């Protein structure tokens, strides 16, 4: 199944089931409804279809508009470690992104006026279905509600202000997330799905999920050891090699650019770039 978050014609946020080019509203009529809450309720697949909308008639929201946590993993492909001149420390590099930085499929990414090195980073996102602490790797896949496409765009000059990631990852409107949550039963083999990023149709990143240094079960186990994962929390699993900073000459996003991040059957996230007003 595929689920997405959107606004009804009256502007009320809700969520629905995507079937072809139609979206069936699964929220409570007349009220704001959230996909995160439905996941926590544990009966998402049993909800009754409500009003149907044409997909191209609704305003999409980020897949989970209000996650309690967004945990991002850095340096999780060997190719990216090499191009950044870093080393594999043996443990995941974890930083946080805030929910108010997210934009939906089709919405613009905003290049901040405070910096110039606005870089693309296509990633696989994991959405937690059943949370907990100290989740064993053997149980981790059973805790997943679904997968989505994530664009963890980065302001590289801000990342180099000091030895941290947070400011360069949290400017408003810099994190693409969508278009839909895809449940695990829709994916025969996660490892063969390729993370591909295209900038103005040029293929810039292309690696299979199987190349992750720390795979999805390992990330869930590690993250749940230091924080309680909750339904609707998001883990962005890291970007492959090919980022703009690692190229000679460097390539950074600018206003008017079109960026597509595709991950096999999970879908394609498309955003254009605009300058901050």
UniProtKB/TrEMBL annotation:
Keywords: Hydrolase, Metal-binding. It comes from the Bacteria. Residues 69-273 form the Fumarylacetoacetase-like C-terminal domain. GO terms for molecular function: hydrolase activity; isomerase activity; metal ion binding. GO terms for biological process: carboxylic acid metabolic process. Gene3D superfamilies: Fumarylacetoacetase-like, C-terminal domain. The keyword tRNA processing does not apply. InterPro entries: FAH, Fumarylacetoacetase-like_C, Fumarylacetoacetase_C_sf. Signal peptide: none annotated. The keyword Metal-binding applies. Belongs to the FAH family. PANTHER family: FUMARYLACETOACETATE HYDROLASE DOMAIN-CONTAINING PROTEIN 2A, FUMARYLACETOACETATE HYDROLASE DOMAIN-CONTAINING PROTEIN 2A-RELATED. This is Fumarylacetoacetate hydrolase family protein. It comes from Caenibius tardaugens NBRC 16725. The lineage of its organism: Bacteria, Pseudomonadati, Pseudomonadota, Alphaproteobacteria, Sphingomonadales.
């Amino acid at each position: 199944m595929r689920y997405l978050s959107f606004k009804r014609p009256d502007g009320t946020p809700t969520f629905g089931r995507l079937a072809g080019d139609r979206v069936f509203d699964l929220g409570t009529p007349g009220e704001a409804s959230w996909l995160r809450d439905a996941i926590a309720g544990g009966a998402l697949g049993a909800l009754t279809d409500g009003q149907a909308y044409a997909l191209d008639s609704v305003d999409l929201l980020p897949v989970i508009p209000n996650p309690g946590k967004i945990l991002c993993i850095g340096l999780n492909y060997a190719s990216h470690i090499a191009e950044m001149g870093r080393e594999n420390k043996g443990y995941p590099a974890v930083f946080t992104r805030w929910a108010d930085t997210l934009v939906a499929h089709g919405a613009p990414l905003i290049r901040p006026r405070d910096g110039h090195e606005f870089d693309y980073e296509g990633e696989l996102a994991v959405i937690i279905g059943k949370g907990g602490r100290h989740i064993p790797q053997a149980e981790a896949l059973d805790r997943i509600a679904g997968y989505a496409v994530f664009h963890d765009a980065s302001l590289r000059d801000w990342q180099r202000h000091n030895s941290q990631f947070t400011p360069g990852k949290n400017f408003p409107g810099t994190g693409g997330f969508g278009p839909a949550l895809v449940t695990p039963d829709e994916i025969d083999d996660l490892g063969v799905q390729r993370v591909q990023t295209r900038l103005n149709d040029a293929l810039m990143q292309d690696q299979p999920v199987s190349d992750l240094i720390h795979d999805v079960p390992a990330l869930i186990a590690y993250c749940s050891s230091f924080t309680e994962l909750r339904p609707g929390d998001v883990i962005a699993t890291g970007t492959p090699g090919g980022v703009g900073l690692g190229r000679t000459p460097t390539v950074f996003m600018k206003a008017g650019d079109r960026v597509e991040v595709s991950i096999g059957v999970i879908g394609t996230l498309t955003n254009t770039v605009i300058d901050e007003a």
